[in-house]
UniProtKB/TrEMBL annotation:
Cited InterPro entries: CheY-like_superfamily, Sig_transdc_resp-reg_receiver, WalR-like
Keyword Electron transport appears in the UniProt entry: no
Organism: Paenibacillus nasutitermitis
Record protein name field: Response regulatory domain-containing protein
GO biological process terms held by the UniProt record: regulation of DNA-templated transcription
Response regulatory domain span: 3-117
Gene Ontology MF term list: phosphorelay response regulator activity; transcription cis-regulatory region binding
SMART domains cross-referenced by the UniProt entry: REC
Organism domain of life: Bacteria
4-aspartylphosphate: residues carrying this PTM: D54
Coiled coil ranges: none
Gene Ontology annotations for the cellular component aspect, listed alphabetically: cytosol; protein-DNA complex
Length: 119
């Protein structure tokens, strides 16, 4: 079972990822939040295998949040989900598992989950 967290400052983006992921048998959504600090606090006390992070968020952006999460637990796989393609190099420099462009499709999500299962 893959326990995932979703963090995006857009409610519709969170809902879309929840809808896609909730239909996949071996995925458990541990947290879906619009608040990066809440996500960090959650990861401090709960195991997380896969974190889906938006990049452009206020206060703590997704790149910074990924660094904080990996300091807590280096085995967390990070997937950036964004509308901006210009952060891809930075994302992969942070060892991101994948980089998804919005809107995410089920087919693209399944490819990402296959990568996560193989890791």
């Amino acid at each position: 079972m893959l326990r995932v967290m979703i963090v995006d400052d857009e409610e519709l983006a969170v809902q879309r990822l929840e809808m896609i992921l909730s239909g996949i048998d071996d995925v458990e959504i541990g947290l879906a939040s619009m608040n990066p600090q809440e996500a960090y606090d959650y990861a401090r006390t709960h195991p997380v295998h896969l974190a889906f992070l938006d990049i452009a968020m206020p206060k703590i952006n997704g790149l910074r949040l990924s660094t904080l999460l990996l300091e807590l637990n280096p085995s967390i796989s990070v997937v950036f989900v964004t509308g901006f393609d210009n952060y891809a190099i930075q994302a992969f420099d942070l060892n991101a598992l994948d980089y998804l462009m919005k809107p995410v499709t089920l087919q693209r999500m399944l490819k990402t989950l296959d990568k996560a299962r193989k890791r």
